[in-house]
User: What shape does this take?
Amino acid sequence: MHYVAIAAQPLDVNALYEKLKAPQFGGIVTFIGTVRQWTDDVETTSLDYTAYTEMAVKELTKLAVEVEAKGANVIIVHRVGHLELTDEAVFVGVAAAHRGEAFKWCEYLIDTVKKQVPIWKKEYDTDKIRWGGPNDVQR
Assistant: This one.
């Protein structure tokens, strides 16, 4: 059974991983996105994440149900609020019968979350504030 959430508190990645374990699954793949300091030549000091929470949970649930229909277990949790360098921003986990499926679906999920789930990032960089990343809107 899937678990999705938008979290205002730090992610307990060990507890989330434990939710994926089950006897029928031989492969568990997780992706944990953290706040990084450098993106090319842009230095980030911290981030703020915001979300349209109701819609974000609805979209995360649709993604999880889609992958679960293929025989996997899915967990997707994304942080909101202020995050410092190295803080965990997102956890995506997939448990499947075999590792190949788990890898494929985990990558699909994080890529799709970034493209279509209403979660926005405000980057505090050493030179300016950016919305979404170094190539997006600058203030």
The longest strand covers residues 42-51.
